[in-house]
Amino acid sequence: MKHHLQEIISTALSTLRADGTLDCELPDIQIERTRDRSHGDFACNIAMMLAKFAKRKPRDLAEQIVAALPQSDSVAKVEIAGPGFINFSMAPSAFQAVVEQVLEAGEAYGRSTIGAGKRVQVEFVSANPTGPLHVGHGRGAAYGATVADLLAVAGFQVHREYYVNDAGRQMDILATSVWLRYLDVCGEKLEFPSNGYKGDYVWDIAKSLQQDAGETYRHSATDVFTDIPADEPAGGDKELHIDALIARARELLGADDYRKVFDKGLNVILADIREDLEEFGVAYEEWYSERSLMESGAVDKAIERLQTSGHVYEEKGALWFRSTDFGDEKDRVVVRDNGQKTYFASDIAYHMEKIERGFERVIDVWGADHHGYVPRVKAALQALGDDPSKLDVLLVQFAILYRSGEKVQMSTRSGSFVTLRELREEVGNDAARFFYVMRKCEQHMDFDLDLAKSQSNDNPVYYLQYAHARVCSVMRQLEEKGFSYEQAVGLKQVDKLTESHEQALLVSLSRYPEVVEAAALEHEPHVVAYYLRELANDFHTYYNAHQFLVEESSLRNSRLALILAVRQVLANGLGLLGVSAPESM
RNA sequence: GCCCCGAUAGCUCAGCUGGAUAGAGCGUCCCCCUCCUAAGGGGAAGGUCAGAGGUUCGAAUCCUCUUCGGGGCGCCA
Q1: Nucleotide nearest to A530 (CA to C1')
Q2: For residue range A65-82, what is the model confidence (pLDDT) as tens digits?
Q3: Are the CB atoms for A307 and A300 separated by under 8 Å?
Q4: Which residue ranges form the domains of chain A, and what is each CATH number?
């Protein structure tokens, strides 16, 4: 409908230009849904926009535009109001036709082709595989998955990807943590490093390792700890302590066995993450390994490309990328003086590789704590001759957890955190998915665990699901009451839908495609959540005000057609958010 | 110190990218099941849109400054 109005206004403006009434640039034609019904259904501010350039009074201009509008069956009334708004009232038939559009399209109602098949990559979660996902990752998972699904519905070709940080120091700390716990399981007496991963899952991995391999990797605690610098609690430095232990693990185990222990930890945790996300309704096209990037030489290639293009220099034994040339606040190290490539180096390679794979848009969903990272990655893309505007980084603010009114401190390494799995089990996937996505991503989120865990009706997701279940319930009652439903009859009689509640519902249904499109393009799933709330509210109000299962066939069939359309849109919208649409509750 | 995000009803948040009288949920207070699920509906109260300037027909929305929160500023990942 919006689109139609844009067209007829555009025609009117062309007419005015042709006869010389207008001779200025034409801005985009903005059509808005009115807030107040007395202003019609849609409003256009074009006359006020043009008034400046045309040096004419907005209201006079509006009158000329209205006079030049072509005839349209779906427009019932056009009025000029306020400072120069052009208000459109649509013919009831235009809204009534929505019922058929919804029922015809079914699951496809709300889809569009605005993405034109463009290839978009969405990378999200990408948490280090050093432990189970916690509730902080849950927000990125729900948000990223929904943004990806929205883009798909809007006609983009979407590639969902998880970047697996299976290389680097954090993973070495995990491998060493697993090994030390394993030694403990084998009967060695040792002091666990304060900087190691202390979660229970490390014990589990260690026990599993012992079951698989017996004492193959066993060394005496004395051999392990001899000449290792003291840990922090003992007056030393925890970083030096853990690094020495990593080196010792490599030395005692040898490269092959170290890798086996390393991979044991990695694989167990990655499998857990994968299963966790799958159960959460989050699926990926690809799990992309950082290690493969190192081993394929892609990282070296990226550094070489920066070198040959002259964006790299050496200082104090390290190799630096001159990111300040591209607006970053300081230059960044890509190869340390000990010859180790930094995480940033593989990230440059990874993003270079993303562009090389031919994605027209690349979306990264990151935690807000990584925001300082954006300029340097964009700088790297620019230095490599790629277009940094292809990359969109969506920063998701933290979810601050509250339990019994107090903030929950989160730390992966100390093992004190609430896992995503734990949350899902207690709240349910539906509530968790919905809750995470209800707020726009740059908004801090207070996640009240007690509220979320309580199966109370405070939880907004039940309200939507209930609306869906209610429609299903009505349809179940149909036969019991000896009535029948014929869609063809209902669709022929949609002009019976004249009650104010029905009109409100029809308007809401007609908005759905606009809502989905806007949510997709702006990466804002929360607008879908808010929309569904309104639709459900319109329905519940209608339900209370009118009977659907009435004697009169034409009225009954048209009303049932309407509520079935509502059910369809609720199901489509809930599906987009990863929430189920139950038939009964 | 510099950078990012935020500040709207008692609480948690929307506000269609500058539009008409600023909206929901929860909480509080009234009311509605002889009726398709009351996990529902209707109504009331509740606001200096953090503050001060500016831009214009028009500002919660854009710009500047100030105040207050959260986060980030490693040859960590």
Answers
A1: B14
A2: 999 999 889 999 999 988
A3: no
A4: 2-90 (3.30.1360.70), 96-114+456-576 (1.10.730.10)
